[in-house]
Amino acid sequence: MDPGSAGQNPELARVCLTVSQLNRAVSGALQAEFGVQRVRGELASLTRAASGHWYFTLKDSGAQVRCVMFRSRNAQLDFAPRDGDEVEVTATVGLYEARGEFQLTVELMRRFGAGRLWEEFLRLRQRLSAEGLFEAGIKRPLPVLPQRVGVITSLQAAALRDVLTTLRRRAPYLTIILYPVPVQGAEAAVRIAAMLATASRRAEVDVLLLVRGGGSIEDLWSFNEEVVARAIRASAVPVIVGVGHESDFTIADFAADLRAPTPTAAAELVAPERDALLREIVARVRAISRGLERRMDERAQRLDHALRLLASPRAPLRGLEGRVADLRARCGAQARAQLRQGRATAAGLADALLRARPAPAQGLLHLAELASRLQAAQRRAAQLRAAALALRSSALAHLNVQGVLDRGFAILRDASGRPLISTAGLVPGAAVEATLAHGTAELVVTGTRPAA
Fold first, then answer.
1. C-alpha 332: how far from its chain's center?
2. pLDDT of 147-160, one tens digit each?
3. What is the pTM of this model?
4. Which domain holds residue 334?
5. Which of 218, 270, 269, 217 is nearest to 248 (CA)?
6. If both were cysteines, with which of 104, 163, 212, 281 could 67 make a disulfide (CB 3.0 to 4.6 Å apart)?
7. How distant is the alpha carbon of residue 88 from its chain centre?
8. pLDDT score for 178
9. How far apart are CA 250 and CA 326, in angstroms?
10. 89 and 57 within one domain
11. What is the DSSP track for 354-368?
12. Are both 256 and 281 inside the same structural domain?
């Protein structure tokens, strides 16, 4: 017996159906009557279950209907729907038999009206990309430590409050200049492009933030206009774009020097935290100190090695060795004193910077300059000491007796061991000792001649 035929035959209407039979018959009748339908409405009560299935309500001003979209279908979407989005779905009309609820089983979903806009978006992106407008090589570098930041957005936008709050928290020293423009509507794109040109012409900021909160593709369409993309690239000031949510992409994102996923993220990118900058300065000062210490140790090691290479006899050099040792000690003491003074100066500047909340950026720049000057002074001092050491080492080499002997000369001594510098006192038959480069020789005087 077909329960669905009961409505056509009065006799069959007297048959008592179970609830399951009734719901199954109604579900089959709905599917047979309506099949697959395209329905437009506003999303509400969207729930993403642990199974991956989506449950939501589709509504308009006069009615609503419950919907389900299974995981195998919603995984194919290229956007993340949210409550309040107006969408168009392709769905089968039926009944959820277990609860007897009328529902749509959604097969496809897209933003309402997004099809034409999406195609236009893709065409413009492809054309501008072919022109090279999005090439990484033409992106302008962002300032490492900006002092003045411009914000282009609507004065009524929630994004403006988020950006200002983030900048005040992370970098209270920044000067912020607002460039108000409408971010939605028929004239918004032209107004945004004109404001970008104005900010570029004034050249009163180091970087520009072009921001707007989230919305549908229609709401964000001003940022998909060609005139905005070209104005971004024509700007003499670097531009960071933070429009919509992380999943939203616009033509302005591709044209920007840097794309931020949200307006808040854009503010974080442009304003490094003061504490992080202070930590970096301390780390750099420590690195400079360690580098100077290593250089002094290396120079001391080279000096020790040079002293070990000095050949004997060493007797004529002992006085000079004492002078070298004294100079070495004085050089080391002076270098350590300068290093301690530099560390104390850097520490004092860092403390002053911590206390100078209104304008720590000036302190940072001054400290960086002092650190650079300290490093240059240490480098010059080390060069001067190295030159002095090389000069004294050269003098020591000239006084090295062994070097004279190696050139073919000899030292003559009489029987008592005194060096001979004259023939006076020498008689034939006298014994003389000759010290050569390698060994000694016993000689006998056979005759003398007076000096010419």
1. 39
2. 899 999 999 888 89
3. 0.44
4. 274-399
5. 217
6. 104
7. 42
8. 95
9. 72
10. yes
11. HH--S-HHHHHHHHH
12. no
How many CB atoms are located within 10 Å of the residue 291 CB?
Answer: 13
Tokens 């009961």 locate to 6
Pair 106, 225 in one domain: no
Residues 120, 266 within the same domain: yes
Number of domains in the chain: 4
Residues 6+ apart with CB under 8 A from 67: 55, 56, 57, 58, 89, 91, 103, 104, 105, 106
Exposure string of 376-398, with b = 16+ CB inside 10 Å and e = fewer, is eebeeebeebeeebeeebeebee
User: Can you give the pLDDT at residue 353?
Assistant: 66
Cβ neighbour number for residue 412 with a 10 Å cutoff: 16
Tokens 């199974």 belong to 51
Q: Which residues contact 91 (CB under 8 A, 6 or more apart)?
A: 36, 37, 39, 67, 104, 105, 106, 107
254 lies in a domain? yes
Has residue 298 been placed in a domain? yes
Phi then psi dihedrals of residue 363, to 5 deg: -60, -40
pLDDT tens track for 325-373: 778 888 878 888 888 888 888 787 777 666 655 555 666 787 888 888 8
Q: For the chain, list residues with pLDDT below 50.
A: 1, 4, 6
pLDDT 10s digits, 384-429: 888 888 888 777 777 777 777 788 888 888 888 888 878 777 878 8
Please tell me the distance from the alpha carbon of residue 66 to that of residue 71, in angstroms, as a whole number.
17
Provide the terminal-to-terminal Cα distance of the chain, rounded to the nearest Å. 152
Task: State how far the Cα of 378 lies from the Cα of 372, in Å rounded to an integer.
Answer: 10
Element (H, E) at 201: helix 188-202
pLDDT at site 1:
46
Residue matched to tokens 């090589």: 137
- The answer to whether position 404 is within a domain reads no
Residue that terminates a domain, selected from 239, 270, 301: 270
* DSSP symbols for 264-324: HHHHHHH---HHHHHHHHHHHHHHHHHHHHHHHHHHHHHHHHHHHHPPSP-GGGHHHHHHH
Query: Which pair of structure tokens corresponds to residue 180?
Result: 């108000």
